[in-house]
Every structure is written in structure tokens, then in C-alpha cells.
Amino acid sequence: MQTPLQITFRHMGPSPALEERIRARVAELEQFFERIVSCHVTVECRHQRQHQGKLFDIGIALTLPGCELVVNRDTGLNHAHEDAYVAVRDAFDAVRRQLEDHARRGRGAEQIHGTP
After folding, report:
1. Residue 40: which of 71, 7, 78, 17 has the closest Cα?
2. Which of 3.40.50.150, 3.30.160.100, 3.30.540.10, 3.40.50.920 is the CATH number of 6-107?
């Protein structure tokens, strides 16, 4: 990556363990697609005054040569995202799918469906 990874925590204190998990997931993306220019990950805790039931929103902006992939995992009421690690996993899975589609389009391997 040409630009260092940026991780922003909103409405919560920084978490070294969560930051390490994010760095590991970005490293996996870099192994899959080497030409990543920059990556900015935002971890936001909604309802910061609650002790239980806090939901985490994860935003990922991945810059590639010629385009930018953006994932904003607005969880709505998905209670699985009360766990920040699950929210990070889901967001990185979504950006990985977008990255795979981008790589496939770059190779010209787009599927062509015939008319029924």
C-alpha cells in the first residue's frame, strides 16, 4: 500500500486488539490484490451511553488505481453487530467481494448471461 492504513474510532476509545484485527484483514486484502493505494477504516459505536446493546458501524474506503471501493456497514438493528469483531468481519467480507468483482472486471472475465 502506498499510503499508510488509517483507522478511526468514533464515539469510543481506541482498541488495540480491534486495531490488530483490522490490520490483519487489510493484510489479507493486500495479498489478494497488490495494487491497493490506500485504505481508511472507520469504527463507530452507536448508542455510546448504553452498557448493553451497543451496535458497531464499520466503514471502509479502499482506493485502487482508477477507482474507489466503499463499504459502509450500517447495521440497522442487526444484533450480531453488538460484537465489534463480527461487524469488522462482515464489512471486510463485503469489501473483499467488491474487490473480487473489480479484479474480475479488470481481467475481462465478466460473466455473460444469455436471454432466457
Report:
1. 7
2. 3.30.160.100
